[in-house]
Design brief:
The complex is a heterodimer. Chain A has twelve helices and no strands. By secondary structure, chain A is mostly helical. Chain A folds into two domains: 53 residues, no CATH class; 203 residues, MetI-like (MetI-like fold, Orthogonal Bundle), CATH 1.10.3720. The radius of gyration of chain B is 25 Å and the shape is elongated. Classes of the chains: A mainly alpha, B alpha+beta.
């Protein structure tokens, strides 16, 4: 009997608490579900639309076919037809993205390290200046760069575009590396110094390995940001060499061709492919999570 | 302060008027001290007293605003940390998380260009020394706190530093492990004959470990002496209260004919040893410093002249096994704490008992300060 009453006590206490939790839980799950629905619905719609049999983008799609994927393959192979230059655009965007990412990553690591480590005159100003592209409309950046470059006849067309892309990707690297620098205690570097390491050795042997996840994350964000950037590219690119978003934009101007849906699915697959490879190589959790522990 | 000629070659660390300011406040205020070779020297004080800053100045991790740091006679004030050849153990160990235990320990040897085979030997030896044989391939996060502590120590001593600096290295360990590590650390330091400068806020730890202790308060050294002196003859009220438990009585000395007496601020009067007049003149405020264990209740054996003798009543008796501590009220309304070893395993007195109270003259000291 005594045992029975003992058991009933905690149960009576747990009951109402669990019910409250359920109400909150249902609310939370519904909210999360809505957020995910809004995030993924467009992707799902594009995915479904890409299998349409009709000549225009329609939802729900009419029939099922793979003709638009066929067209996409043709376009990628530069087959003569309506969509010239797709393969070249993808190659161009990849080159641009990789170069912008490499430049942003190197300068971003140095900048983030300087901001983290040193106290100098105008530090706050510089910090805010580097972050401006995140707040400023890209339109202003694009127009501003275009006017400056043409007014003073600076650089060739590719360099202009590259500079524009570095400007908009750099903040991502600085943020990501800065966050990983803040994760570990400063006395780890001091320990290296007491053990005889000079500043350069400390950075190379201690700091760099510790912030590697942040560097990789920043580099990937920079690459993706560059690859998908429209506004800056719009003002700085010219006919001969078009980044993918501009190519897509020009196609849309000529009507809504379902090949765009197929292309979108292809690009999403590529992005997922990159993430899978990274996961295999270094583990995605190490990139987005904190370093080490 | 000290008399006699000191042989310069015997000094491991010498601080001369060392000053470090943060903003307007001086974290370290014109500190001068000398640490002898092979000595275990502690900087003890409450948080914010400047002890860690002093250690960082010795290490070169902070730059002094004035004064000089000398290590083995060489002025290293302008020498960067990595060329001072010091070993340092940090409060949270500061192990390199991406390196194994062996890599952590051999890092300093690599930086000092020690050959690979010699380095391997030295790592193996030091792992034995800190009783961590077989853990060389593990990562720091796979070790317990105590083991990480030992790796940090091994990493610091393997480079055979001129001086070993330790910044509250045991404060993150639980009480039992801390006691063990104290003994181990002391034994290791003696065996290697290494000079150690140890920062702690734990007075018991400082008393246990140190050859000498410098007590710091507000960026200055209040007293620098061996543990015994500091415990028995605290330089001022701050030190008296900081070290151990204490009865502090406020009052002043008086000369009454041939005998010296102490009058408390509440008017109670005791006979006290004449020697207290070396500390203060009559009428000047002087705190009597009585350690609880030297307050004897119903004393056995002969009582010496100049000791405090009075009567009191026990208000509270707190039994804790080997020791019972008593709170008592003595003549004149003064409250005192007494502590007695329970040689028979039980308390000798109960609450409410009337007892005779005696303090031996040798156990009475005084401290200045309000």
């Amino acid at each position: 009997m005594a045992v029975a009453t003992d058991l009933s006590l905690p149960r009576a206490r747990v009951g109402p608490r669990r019910r409250r939790l359920d109400v909150a839980g249902v609310g939370l799950w519904s909210f999360a579900g809505l957020v995910f629905a809004f995030l993924f619905a467009p992707i799902l719609i594009i995915f479904l639309t890409s299998f349409t049999a009709s000549r225009t983008v329609e939802f729900p799609p009419h029939g099922f076919s793979l003709i638009w994927y066929g067209r996409l393959v043709d376009a990628l192979r530069n087959a003569p037809g309506l969509h010239p230059g797709l393969a070249r655009s993808i190659w161009f965007s990849t080159n641009l993205g990789v170069m912008a990412s490499v430049i942003s990553t190197i300068s971003g690591v140095l900048a983030a390290y300087a901001f983290h480590k040193f106290v100098f005159r105008g530090k706050e100003v510089f910090q805010n200046l580097f972050m401006l592209p995140l707040i400023f409309p890209s339109l202003v950046i694009g127009v501003g760069l275009l006017l400056t470059f043409s007014e003073y006849r600076l650089f060739d067309r590719f360099t202009r575009l590259l500079i524009g892309h570095v400007v908009v990707t750099l903040p991502f690297v600085i943020l990501s590396v800065g966050a990983s620098l803040r994760v570990y205690e400063e006395d780890i570097e001091e320990a290296a110094q007491t053990l005889g390491a000079n500043a350069l050795q400390t950075f190379w042997h201690i700091t760099l390995p510790l912030i590697r996840p942040g560097i990789l994350a920043g580099a990937i964000f920079a690459l993706l940001t560059s690859f998908t950037n429209f506004t800056v590219s719009f003002f700085l690119s010219v006919n001969a060499a078009k980044p993918v978003p501009i190519w897509i934009y020009e196609l849309i101007l000529n009507g809504n061709d379902p090949i765009l849906a197929a292309l979108s699915v292809f690009l999403i697959a590529m992005a997922i492919g990159v993430l899978v490879i990274l996961e295999r190589l270094i583990g995605i959790r190490r990139i987005v999570g904190t370093s080490g522990s | 302060m000290e008399t006699g000629v000191r042989i310069v070659g015997n000094l491991a660390v010498q601080l001369v008027n060392l000053t470090k300011r943060y903003g307007r406040a001086a974290a370290v205020d014109a500190v001068s001290l000398e640490v002898l070779r092979g000595e275990f020297f502690s900087l003890l004080g409450p948080s914010g007293c400047g002890k860690t800053t002093t250690l960082r100045l010795i290490a070169g991790l902070a730059e002094p605003d004035a004064g000089a740091v000398k290590i083995l006679g060489d002025d290293v004030t302008d020498v960067p940390t990595n060329r001072r050849n010091i070993g340092m153990v940090f409060q949270n160990y500061a192990l390199f998380p991406h390196m194994t235990v062996s890599e952590n320990i051999s890092f300093g040897l690599r930086m000092h260009k020690v050959g690979r085979s010699e380095a391997a030997d030295r790592v193996a030896n030091v792992l034995d020394l800190v009783r961590l044989r077989g853990t060389g391939d593990r990562l720091p996060r796979q070790l317990s706190g105590g083991q990480q502590q030992r790796v940090a120590l091994a990493r610091a001593i393997v480079i055979e530093p001129k001086v070993l600096l330790l910044d509250e290295p045991l404060s993150n360990l639980d009480a039992k492990l801390r006691k063990e590590m104290q003994l181990e650390l002391r034994a290791l330091q003696r065996r290697l004959g290494i000079t150690a400068v140890y920062v702690t806020h734990d007075q018991e730890e400082a008393l246990t470990l140190s050859d000498r202790i410098a007590i710091m308060e507000n960026g200055r050294i209040t007293q620098c002496a061996d543990p015994n002196d500091i415990y028995r003859r605290p330089a001022n009220r701050f030190v008296a209260e900081f070290i151990g438990r204490v009865n502090l009585i406020r009052g002043s000395l008086e000369q009454r004919g041939a005998t010296s007496v102490y009058r408390t601020e509440h008017g109670a009067v005791f006979a006290v040893p004449r020697s207290l007049f070396q500390l203060a003149d009559s009428q000047e405020t002087l705190h009597l410093v009585l350690r609880p264990e030297s307050v004897q209740l119903d004393p056995r054996g002969s009582l010496r002249e100049g000791g405090i003798r009075t009567r009191g009543r026990i208000l509270q008796a707190i039994y804790s096994g080997s020791v019972t501590s008593y709170e008592l009220e003595v003549d004149g309304g003064l409250r005192l704490r007494a502590e007695e070893q329970n040689t028979l395993g039980t308390s000798r007195h109960r609450e409410g008992d009337e007892v005779e109270v005696y303090v031996d003259p040798a156990a009475i000291s005084g401290a200045l300060g309000d």
